[in-house]
Amino acid sequence: MMLSFTQLIRRKNMTTSNQTKISSAVFMRGIRGTNSILYDGVPQIAFIGRSNVGKSSIINALTNRKDLVKVSNKPGKTREINFFKINNRLYFVDLPGYGYAKVDPDEKESLMKLILWYLVYSEVKPLKVILILDVKAGFTEFDREMVRALRENNHAYLIVANKTDKLSQKELAVQLQKIREESNEEDIILCSTVARGGIGELQKQIFN
Q1: What confidence tens digit (pLDDT) does each residue in 38-94 have?
Q2: CB 184 within 8 A of CB 157
Q3: What is the three-state SS of 112-143?
Q4: How far is CA 114 from CA 31, 107, 119, 146, in A?
Q5: By Cβ atoms counted within 10 A, which residue in 69, 137, 161, 198 is the most buried?
Q6: Are 138 and 178 a contacting pair, CB within 8 Å?
């Protein structure tokens, strides 16, 4: 039986929805250096960002879980690279937040080295790296350093501007333009875990 155009579109949308739906998410382990989980052949999606940009909340929203990743009131608390198995077919890799001023300088340097080790020296090639910004804070020097590392090592990446609910539409437009100019990237995903804005789009970008 020949399907109508509307039926074809509906079927395509249903297929896309099924492909992007996360049905299971399990914490596997946290590491601080070379580990077999890095090289077990499971594709990896890495999440990076400064402390307090809402990285944990975004991962929780993507997986529709409230506490998969612990959201701390003390930014900079994550000290490991944490692996979560998604749909039993890929990893979400949660890297420590960087740049939090109140972290001890030696520990801050150690965390930055751990992040750069994963991106530059581990020889891991994640499918995509999701760089999360606080849209109000904008594109910082720490973010510039991350983008340089991503580009120099030919990593595919997406930039997500989070916490859009904190700004008016006018303020958001101004900040978005600044981020585009400073990052030299036109496609920025706007996101709010409070309003769940952008979560569906981010899911599609991750799974496509």
Answers
A1: 999 999 999 999 988 999 999 999 999 888 987 655 544 567 999 999 999 999 999
A2: no
A3: HHHHHHHHHHCCCCCCEEEEEEECCCCCCHHH
A4: 10, 10, 9, 13
A5: 161
A6: yes
Beta bridge partners of 192: 197
Q: If DSSP codes are grouped into helix, strand and coil, which group holds residue 83?
A: strand
Model pTM score: 0.86
Paired tokens of 155 = 């990593």
The token duo for 107 is: 């520990």
Domain 26-207: top CATH class: alpha beta
HSE (CB half, 13 Å, CA atoms) of 54? 24
Closest by CA position to 80, among listed 33, 12, 125, 143: 33
Q: Of how many residues is the chain composed?
A: 208
Structure tokens at 24: 């299971």
